[in-house]
TrEMBL record:
Taxonomic lineage from the root: Bacteria, Pseudomonadati, Pseudomonadota, Gammaproteobacteria, Oceanospirillales
Pfam assignment, any one: TIM
Family statement: Belongs to the triosephosphate isomerase family.
Compartments it resides in: Cytoplasm
Reactions mediated catalytically: D-glyceraldehyde 3-phosphate = dihydroxyacetone phosphate
Protein task: Involved in the gluconeogenesis. Catalyzes stereospecifically the conversion of dihydroxyacetone phosphate (DHAP) to D-glyceraldehyde-3-phosphate (G3P).
Protein name listed in UniProt: Triosephosphate isomerase
Annotated catalytic residues: 93, 165
E.C. numbers: 5.3.1.1
Positions bound to substrate: 9-11, 171, 210, 231-232
Amino acid sequence: MRQKLVAGNWKMNGSFDLLKSLLEPVSQEKGLSCQLLVCPPFPYLAAAADLLKSSGVFLGAQDCAATPVGAYTGEVAAEMLAEMGVSHVILGHSERRHYQAEGDALVLAKVKQALAAGLKPVVCVGETLEEKQAGQTAEVVLRQVQAVATQLSSEQLGQLIFAYEPVWAIGSGLTATPDQAQEVHSLIRKALAEQDQQQAARIQLLYGGSVKAENAASLFAMPDIDGGLIGGASLNASQFLAIGHAA
Ligand code: PEP
């Protein structure tokens, strides 16, 4: 049985004050049955690792380099993240696909680096509003999933987490209905199962896009939704923990 995972993507938000006020209650919360993951910006990772130590809360980064080491000014290697106590890394987020023009090939290269460093990649996929309106949701999402999945060994595949994040739902207040999200999650799992049935049954598939305490339980109750990737609501400890309790 897959465990639920509630992951917070802080994006480019935060401060040392927020780090402390958020991670103290999160690291002390009792009685959650899901896994928790927090992904603050790079400059806060070391302090976050310290605040979370022995709490059981996982620490993630929001990106990593597509190369292991060398003359790549401004980049952060997956190995460096692993050395800091990071266990997960968000890759292919729609904001990076859009603002940094990251394509499927680059996302795959980053996934390979993350895996080589022992990190679990949280690979984000999702269609834009235009693509949804053109009836291209399945095509776009499966292309993004398969661009990564088909290039990995079975063992590597089992390390992945996918987050289905319809771009039109991110930060917009619009959420896919549980049925809409389940339909896409089920398509993703079926596509993965065609490649490797055992791993497909194990891989956590998260939903992201305006998840809040009020809508989390109905989304997470769907059979192929194994938790959420949370943006805005992860910046508030009580909201984030309420989502955790809904999982
Ligand atoms: C995200 O950016 O990963 C996200 C899901 O954001 P929000 O929850 O704010 O829509």
